[in-house]
Amino acid sequence: MQKLIIAGQEFNSRLFLGTGKFSSNQLMEEALIASGSEMVTTALRRVDIQNPEDDILKHIDPNRFRLLPNTSGVRTAKEAVFAAELAREALQTNWLKLEIHPDPKYLLADTIETLKACEELAKKGFIILPYMQADPILAKQLEEAGAAAVMPLGSPIGSNKGLITREFIKIIIEQANIPVVVDAGIGAPSHAAEAMEMGADAVLINTAIAVANDPIKMAEAFKLAVQAGRMAFEAKLGAQLNQAEASSPLTSFLDL
Amino acid sequence: MKVYVNDESITLADASTISQLLKQLNTSPKGIAIAIGPNIIPSNLWNEYKLEADDEVLLIRATQGG
Questions:
Q1: I need a labelling partner for A68 at 20 to 30 A (CA). Which of A41, A149, A174, A182 fits?
Q2: What is the dihedral of CA B48, B51, B57, B63, to 10 degrees?
Q3: Lowest mean pLDDT among A5-14, A45-54, A156-165, A187-196
């Protein structure tokens, strides 16, 4: 399989994982390892000074995983820039999953604020992977603004509904000069395989793995699905036809 | 003096540094970021940066997220 390259960094795995919703950090750590992923997202939160929690970073081996902090919780470009700078300071990385979704019900990205933040953060030297609506025009605008990759949603975050936006993701993939990572809504390995068969460069999965009955086994299932989908894309799928085309010879051999 | 850390009031010796605050809070300086009001203070300044009374300190760290 071809390696994925984002901002000059090579990745052997085309599966990125989120770290939310796992029932324990220990389980998360085992699922991350089982997935074969090399990039994982984290969020930021205020330290609760009364109740110190288990430090998530103890469970993410920096030699195995690149950290991709997100800006979840911000509502505007201005807040996103502040959160990005805090993340860079806390995690010592300029890689960033830019996400601005002010509406808690559907968690859809605010296009105008996302583009504004991307422009500003690119000037500040961040390597930005923006979570975005599956909007092909916006994908080009984010690319021009300096995004290192674009991350259109398949369906709303955590919904497990798969690639509702597939036709738009196909256009984004066709037009992009930077990697396309399908983020959000992928609920089953078959959804991930479909995205990869379409030519997505990677997928980001969180809920589907974290809430599975067996997150470790599900992480491995996604690993295999992403590999299979990518291999199929590289091997090039046969054309779809509207009528049958025989796979077996139709010459009659029973002379009745 | 009093400062506010993530909106909680903390009593500190006058002219305490950020490093002294972290020690008092029993918080590891690894994997965290600190802002005083709108200004993010880089970790290489924590040993010398002196807090003032009523400073509003934002203390954040990585957590689970997608």
A1: A174
A2: 30
A3: A45-54
User: Within a domain: residue B56?
Assistant: yes
Within 8 A of B63 by CB-CB distance, chain A residues are 42-45, 53, 56
Q: Does any domain span residue B66? A: no
Q: Closest-CA residue in chain B for A54?
A: B63
Q: Is the dihedral of CA A135, B64, A82, B56 positive or negative?
A: positive
Confidence (pLDDT) at A87: 97
- Active-site entry in A21, A58, A78, A97: A97
Which alpha helices (H) appear in B1-66, and where do they start and end? 18-25
Q: Is A97 a catalytic residue?
A: yes
Question: Quick one: CA torsion of A194, A197, A203, A206, rounded to 10 degrees?
Answer: 30
A131/A182 Cα distance (integer angstroms): 9
Q: What is the chain A residue with the closest CA to B44?
A: A89
The CATH number linked to B22 is 3.10.20.30
The CA distance from B12 to B7, in Å, is 15
B36 touches chain A (CB under 8 A): no
pLDDT digits (tens, 9 = 90+) for A234-255: 999 999 999 999 898 887 777 7
Domains and CATH numbers, chain A: 11-235 (3.20.20.70)
DSSP-based helix, strand, coil % in chain A, nearest 5? 40, 20, 45
- Owner of token pair 């709303």: A156
How many independent structural domains does chain B possess?
1
